[in-house]
Amino acid sequence: xxxxxxxxxxxxxxxxxxxxxxxxxxxxxxxxxxxxxxxxxxxxxxxxxxxxxxxxxxxxxxxxxxxxxxxxxxxxxxxxxxxxxxxxxxxxxxxxxxxxxxxxxxxxxxxxxxxxxxxxxxxxxxxxxxxxxxxxxxxxxxxxxxxxxxxxxxxxxxxxxxxxxxxxxxxxxxxxxxxxxxxxxxx
Length: 187
Known about the structure:
Elements: H1 7-14, E1 17-21, E2 26-30, E3 33-39, H2 44-60, H3 70-88, H4 91-94, H5 103-113, H6 118-152, H7 160-174, H8 181-186
Parallel strand pairs: 1-3
Antiparallel strand pairs: 2-3
Helix pairs in contact: 2-3, 5-6
């Protein structure tokens, strides 16, 4: 249920200390204990989103970003942003809801139901749409390539040269000549 998605519930389950202060949100590890500061100047929805972003750093990343190469820091930030989408609007929960068909109404509904910003709800729906489209394209491509490969091996589609070679191979096979070795010299 979307109502189970809240900072205090998740932090308690994961044994993470959560603070709110007038400073940028960040995750901190000290002696194996994790804490997350959430910027209290943000709206409640933005605080929740920042918490999820920082939670990814706690669960999946290690190291001090101040001492990391920029490319690695950028990768961690991209990973945390992707995690944030999945954690804020889990597909397993979306499947159990009666969702509006109109996209704008759907985004507004999800924004309220999951207590996320309209921007994040839109980003998640756009992501799901892209993945559904990619799945359809992958399936169509798979069907196309299967049809093409079945046409390639259909003897009625063979050229005269291919038919001649295939007949020689069948002849050699019927005589017990293994593929490779002598068969290559006889062709």
